[in-house]
């Protein structure tokens, strides 16, 4: 490899590190904000979305670790992030069941305002990652998680509208369960891709 190619590769890796560090910070901050407001709003949907933000932060942290490392390590990092998504999906389902039994009174306005803020953050992340959507496995995983998060945010906003309209917590519980399903499906997809990549190494 020529000196020019080495410098270009080094610049690309440094750019990936800066990008992933920024995404890690944004998602970590939104996990704290959305989780706190989700508890205040008694919203399963917001709590589920906050846990999804935490999963994303772990994805970005693992992807940051994988930058410049071997394909095997990148695939392992992606598999770990997929496993984290599955575990968080189970935690969300357990919370939905708990609130179904014991009840809750989700606050629709706070739900929608918080979900709109999360949507803005996820759209920013998605835009920053767009050029990497067909790139290496650890960056593809990051893009997929942000894309699924946008759908989850829109779902929470819709659930907030339905809670206000119906006066019942059921829309919030349903969207919490649906987000868990999206999280689980995305996690499974990443695990499958990482296994395929490992087998090809």
Structural class: mainly alpha
Question: Could you give the count of β-strands?
Answer: 0
The first-level CATH class is given as Mainly Alpha
- Give the termini distance in whole angstroms: 22 Å
Radius of gyration, Cα only, in angstroms? 18 Å
Low-confidence stretches: none
Q: Do you know the CATH topology?
A: Alpha-lytic protease prodomain-like
3D shape? elongated
Bin the strand percentage. Answer: under 5%
Percentage of residues assigned to helices: over 70%
What's the story with the biggest beta sheet? Answer: none
Q: What would the average pLDDT be, to the nearest integer?
A: 82
Give the topology string: H per helix, E per strand.
HHHHHH
- CATH architecture label name: Up-down Bundle
| Secondary structure tally, helices | 6
Q: How many separate domains make up the residues? A: 1
Describe it.
It is a single chain. The chain has helices spanning 3-41, 44-66, 71-102, 108-129, 137-166, 170-200. The chain has 201 residues and is mainly alpha-helical. The protein has one domain (3-200): Alpha-lytic protease prodomain-like (Up-down Bundle). α4 runs antiparallel to α5. The radius of gyration is 18 Å and the shape is elongated.
Features:
201 residues; mainly alpha; Alpha-lytic protease prodomain-like; 6 helices; elongated
Which SSEs are present, and which pair or pack?
Elements: H1 3-41, H2 44-66, H3 71-102, H4 108-129, H5 137-166, H6 170-200
Helix pairs in contact: 1-2, 1-4, 2-3, 2-5, 2-6, 3-6, 4-5, 5-6
Short description:
With 201 residues, this protein is mainly α.
């Amino acid at each position: 490899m020529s000196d020019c190619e080495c410098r270009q590769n080094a610049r690309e890796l440094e750019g990936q590190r800066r990008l992933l560090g920024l995404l890690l910070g944004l998602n970590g901050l939104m996990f704290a904000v959305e989780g706190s407001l989700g508890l205040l709003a008694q919203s399963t949907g917001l709590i589920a979305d906050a846990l999804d933000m935490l999963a994303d932060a772990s994805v970005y942290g693992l992807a940051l670790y994988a930058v410049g490392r071997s394909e095997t390590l990148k695939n392992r990092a992606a598999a770990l992030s997929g496993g984290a998504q599955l575990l968080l999906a189970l935690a969300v389902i357990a919370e939905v069941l708990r609130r179904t039994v014991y009840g809750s009174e989700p606050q629709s306005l706070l739900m929608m305002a918080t979900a709109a803020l999360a949507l803005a953050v996820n759209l920013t992340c998605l835009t920053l990652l767009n050029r990497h959507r067909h790139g290496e496995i650890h960056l593809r995983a990051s893009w997929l998680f942000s894309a699924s998060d946008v759908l989850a945010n829109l779902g929470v906003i819709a659930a907030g509208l339905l809670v206000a309209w119906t006066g019942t917590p059921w829309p919030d519980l349903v969207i919490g369960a649906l987000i868990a399903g999206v999280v689980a499906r995305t996690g499974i997809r990443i695990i499958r891709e990482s296994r395929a990549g490992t087998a090809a190494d």
